[in-house]
Amino acid sequence: MQQEKSHRIPWSILVSVVLLAFVLFLPMTSVPPMEHILKEELALTHAQTSLLFSIPIMMIGAVAVPAGILSDRIGIRKAAGIGAIILALGSILRSTATTPSSLLAFTVIYGIGMGWVWPNLPKLVGAWAPREKAGLFTGAYSAGIYAGAAVGIAFTMPLVFPITDTFQGVFLFWGIPPIIAAALWWILVREPPSNAVNDEPITQSITPFHQVIQNRSLWLLSAFFLLYSIFIYSWMGWAPALLILKGATPELAGFISSITMWVAIPIVFFIPRLSHKLGLRKPFLWVPAIIMAIAAWAVISISLPMSWLPMVLVAVAEASMLVTTLSLPIEMVPEKDIGTASGLMLGIGHSGALIGPWISGYLFDLTGNLNASFLLLAGIAIASIGIVFKLPETRPRAQAKKG
Fold first, then answer.
1. How deeply is 390 buried, as exposed, middle or buried, from its count of CB atoms within 10 A (0-12, 13-18, 19+)?
2. Which pLDDT tens digit goes with each residue over 125-139?
3. Which of the listed ranges 93-107, 136-150, 270-284 does the model predict with the highest average pLDDT?
4. What is the Cα–Cα distance from 72 to 13, expressed in whole angstroms?
5. Which domains does the chain have, with CATH numbers?
6. N or C: which end of the chain has fewer CB within 10 A?
7. What is the pTM of this model?
8. How far apart are the first and last CA of the chain?
9. Looking at residues 259-270, what average pLDDT do you find?
C-alpha cells in the first residue's frame, strides 16, 4: 500500500539533503579567491583560470539530463548516492594535481558528481513533500547551497590558505566535507514512499523522454535559467577580481563577495512563503531581473567601501530567482517526471555557467578590466525579463483567474 506524503520531511532526509547541498558548491567556490594564485603558479590566462570555476557547472549541464532520467528509473537514493561518491572523489583528487591538465581532469570528475546530485534534490523534495510545501523545502536545500558557496569564498584566503600554504592543500581541506556528506547520505537516506507501490517497477510509469521535452513551458524555463546562470556564475567567479582591482586585499575581496551568498540564505526561506501567500510565481522572476541589471551596472563605478550594496542587491534578486526556478518543474510536470524535467532545465541552464565566466575572463585579458563584462551582465538580466512574461503562472491565484 502506498504511503501518503507527510507535511514534514523526516529529519534524516532533510539533514542529508541540506548537507549534500552544502558541499555541492563548496569545493568550487574556493577557486575565485585563489584566482591570482592559480593564474601565476599554473601560468594561465584569466580566461583559462575561469574554466577551473566554470567547468564543474558545465558538467552539471552535460550530466543533469541522464542523471535525472536515471533517477526516475533506479530511485533517488541510489542515483544521488552515486553522484555523492563521484563528487567526493573528484574533490579529493584535485588536491593531487600539479599541472593544469591534471587539475582540469579532476575538476571534470568533481563536476560530474555535481551534475549527478543536483537534479535529484528537487525530485527528492517533490517525492517527500506535498506540492504546496515544495517551495519551503526547496528553500531549505537552497540555503545549504548558498551557505557552502559562501564558506568557500569567504574563508579560503583568510583561514584555509594560511594553514595549508598551497592551492592543493586548500582543495584537500575542502574535499573532506563531501566525503562526510556522501557517507551520511548512504547511511541515513531511504527511498521516498512514492517509489514503494506494491513492488511495481518504477520504469512502468515513466513518461518517455521525447514526450517530456515537448513541454513548451519547460523549454522557456530552461532558457531563463540559461541567462540566470550566465549572470550569476560570472558574478560569483569575477566579483573578487573586480574588488581587487578596486584596491581590496584578496581576503577582503573574498569576504565582500561572499555577502551575496550569506544574504541569500534567509531570502530562500522568505520568498517561498511570500510566493505561497500571494499565489504567484512570475513576479519573483522579473522583478529580481531588474534589480540584477541595476546592480551589475552600478558595481562598475561604485567605490570599494560601498561595494557591499550591489552584493546585497544581487543576493536578494538571484536567491528569489533560484528558489522560484527550482520549484517550477515540480509544478509543471507530473511527479514521476520531475527528475527528467529538472535534469533538462539544469542541463540547458548550466551551459551558461561556462559561457559567462569564460567571456568575462576573455574580456578581462583583452581590456585589463571587468567593466565590459559587468555591462554585458546587465544586458543579460534585462533580456531574461522577456522570457518571464511568456512563462505560464503556476500558482493558484493565477489559475483561479483563468477559471
1. exposed
2. 666 666 556 666 777
3. 93-107
4. 18
5. 14-187+212-392 (1.20.1250.20)
6. C
7. 0.76
8. 35
9. 88
Cα 31 from Cα 45, distance rounded (Å) = 14
- Tens of pLDDT along 333-378? 766 667 677 777 877 887 888 888 889 999 999 998 999 999 999 9
Can you give the pLDDT at residue 200?
40
Q: Which amino acid is at 310?
A: P
- Taking only the tens place, the pLDDT of each residue in 58-76 is 887 778 777 767 777 787 7
Supply 117's cell numbers: 546530485
For the chain, the residue count is 403
> How would you write the chain as a 3-class SS string?
CCCCCCCCCCHHHHHHHHHHHHHHHCCHHHCHHHHHHHHHHCCCCHHHHHHHHHHHHHHHHHHHHHHHHHHHHHCHHHHHHHHHHHHHHHHHHHHHCCCHHHHHHHHHHHHHHHHHHCCHHHHHHHHHCCHHHHHHHHHHHHHHHHHHHHHHHHHHHHHHHHHHCCHHHHHHHHHHHHHHHHHHHHHHCCCCHHHCCCCCCHHHHCCCHHHHCCCHHHHHHHHHHHHHHHHHHHHHHHHHHHHHHCCCCHHHHHHHHHHHHHHHHHHHHHHHHHHHHHCCCCHHHHHHHHHHHHHHHHCCCCCHHHCHHHHHHHHHHHHHHHHHHHHHHHHHCCHHHHHHHHHHHHHHHCCHHHHHHHHHHHHHHHHCCCHHHHHHHHHHHHHHHHHHCCCCCCCHHHHHHHC
Separation CA 181–CA 95 (nearest Å): 18
pLDDT at residue number 146: 87
Position with higher pLDDT, 89 vs 211: 89
d(CA 326, CA 17): 15
Please give the Cα distance from 63 to 61 (Å, whole number).
6
